[in-house]
Design brief:
254 residues, alpha/beta, Rossmann fold
């Protein structure tokens, strides 16, 4: 794929950067010239993402951090600044799945889901905004979902509720901080070919065949297609896009 180097001289943070959409976005940012900080809860996959970037000539730092805890988030932003001189772009991608009807979830299940998917997004956003205000601006993209604000699936109702809240959080933050030179949007993928989209015991082929019959586009999405939308939102090409939730779901929510 041809690189335009549209992020040359920029530093991008990707949470949940050890796999799936996060890894695809981290590699794409690096290919386009950015230095990349990847964060997540598991060291090995983060190190692998960073190594993939560096073996292709890029620069990357892997930081183990749980975005649900404020101390980890503070340390993450400080590390990005210390190692790369500052932070220009953030893709708040980290999240956890959770299946089950709302009435079947325990209070602990509910709290764990919200701590990562909503509170974690808010914490990273909060510290990113503080950092970017001091630098004179930046760009933030939050990971929402087509489930929640755009469609509803009872079996992942709690996940949808958290992601709908991320969409609302994005709009409010965007209006609050565009005057600070910080442009904030969200991306809402549908089914994507990652490990998280497979049911227990299901093969990739079985999953792909199942979704092919459910998605108007006729196939499941790829992490790279979502990453393309994230990079567009992070680039000057979308300079007039503020507070939007861009759906990338092959027509499911149309």
């Amino acid at each position: 794929m041809t690189s335009t180097q549209r992020f040359k001289g920029k530093v991008a943070l990707v949470t949940g950067g050890g796999s799936g959409i996060g890894r695809a976005a981290a590699l794409a940012f690096a290919r386009e010239g950015a230095e990349v900080v990847v964060a997540g809860r598991s060291e090995a996959p983060l190190a692998e993402t960073a190594e993939l970037i560096e073996t292709r000539g890029g620069r990357a730092t892997a930081v183990r951090a749980d975005i649900g805890w404020e101390d980890d988030v503070r340390r993450l932003i400080e590390t990005a600044a210390d190692h790369h001189g500052g932070l220009d772009i953030a893709f708040n991608n980290a999240g956890i799945p959770m299946a089950g009807l709302l009435v079947d979830l325990s209070p602990d299940d509910w709290s764990a889901l919200l701590r990562t998917n909503l509170t974690g997004t808010w914490l990273t956003l909060r510290y990113e905004v503080d950092h970017m205000r001091e630098r004179g601006g930046g760009v933030i993209v939050n990971m929402a979902s087509n489930v929640g604000a755009h469609t509803s699936m009872p079996i992942i109702g709690a996940y949808g509720a958290a992601k709908a809240a991320v969409s609302a959080l994005t709009r409010a933050a965007a209006l609050a901080h565009i005057g600070d030179g910080i442009r904030i949007n969200a991306v809402s993928p549908g089914p994507v070919a990652t490990d998280l989209s497979r049911a227990p015991g299901q093969s990739d082929a079985e999953r792909d065949a199942m979704y092919a019959g459910m998605i108007p586009r006729g196939r499941i999405g790829t992490p790279e297609e979502v990453a393309d939308a994230v990079l567009w939102l992070a680039s000057d090409e979308s300079a007039y896009v503020v507070g939007q939730d861009v759906v990338v779901d092959g027509g499911v929510s149309a």
